Give the backbone structure.
Amino acid sequence: MSTTVSAATAPATVTPLSTADAELLLSAARRAADAAGVAVSVTVLDAGGHPLAFRRDDRSVLVSGETSTRKAYTALQLDAPTADLVDLVKPDGPFHSLTTALDRPLLFIAGGLPVHRDGRLVGAVGVGGGAPAQDHSFATAAVAALTGAAPRG
């Protein structure tokens, strides 16, 4: 039995996140944080969870480097903004055990966003160092800069 895939049903090739894309995400998040007067760390991961870019402002708290990376990883693995996951992992939430069920660096605090291109997941950005709502807004500004969309709150 032979299997053929027609051009109409073949999966579309999606350009992966490049280092140039990662630098744009990092710069846009840092610009948004700088404008708000907040020192942050920013992590950009590719679709495989590998780091493409990282920067910790020398004024940011040391733990922000770890939180930005974990937020990006969580957004990537669950293909969802970390801000949308916070209530799901609370003690009465449907996924309350997810925080301890896996031996992975998940972090359910706002500031991580998946990055999509042509409807496909290509990476994630995580921001740490500010209040959760601030980190989320800085990550949102970064993704908007990459996609050309207007930032949403």
The domain at 19-147 is CATH 3.30.450.150 (Beta-Lactamase). The longest helix spans residues 19-36.
